[in-house]
Design a protein that fits this description.
Elements (H helix, E strand, L loop, with lengths): L12 H14 L12 H8 L3 H13 L3 E4 L3 E4 L4 H26 L3 H12 L3
Antiparallel strand pairs: 1-2
Helix pairs in contact: 1-3, 2-3
Protein name: GntR family transcriptional regulator
GO molecular function, one term: DNA binding
Keywords: Coiled coil, DNA-binding, Transcription, Transcription regulation
Length: 124
């Protein structure tokens, strides 16, 4: 599992783990039924506390992305397509809100933002 931890971005480490594992699930890089590394192994690989990996796995379980079984480990849970779509829409809305806020502070108008979105969609 490829997880990169940054100590300089201000985001708590457990959130970085949650975010990166969720992204790997949402992009189908890891599939339903795939086993995640044990909390101890992941903690050892990332050189962090087991408590941090435990918190990340608990968060992923709470959000319905993984399921854990005592003595067996943690596995990627089958995702409901409608739930995934809702998750994506929620993330898109949050990111667009950040963009709108940044544009407002910078004095950039909505038509300029829309032009940027259109050019990004075209792959320009």
């Amino acid at each position: 599992m490829n997880i990169i931890i940054s100590n300089s971005n201000g985001q708590p480490i457990y959130e970085q783990i949650v975010s990166q594992i969720k992204n790997q699930i949402l992009t189908k890089e890891i599939a339903a039924g795939d086993a995640l590394p044990s909390m101890r192994l992941l903690a050892k690989e990332l050189k962090i506390s087991v408590i941090t990996t435990k918190r990340a796995y608990e968060e992923l379980e709470k959000e319905g992305f993984i399921e854990s079984y005592t003595g067996k480990g943690s596995f990627v849970k089958a995702q409901n397509e409608e739930q995934l779509k809702e998750q994506h829409l929620h993330e898109i809305k949050n990111k667009l809100q950040e963009i709108v806020d940044l544009a407002y502070v910078s004095g950039i108008d909505l038509p300029d933002i829309i032009d940027i979105l259109k050019s990004l969609q075209k792959g320009e």
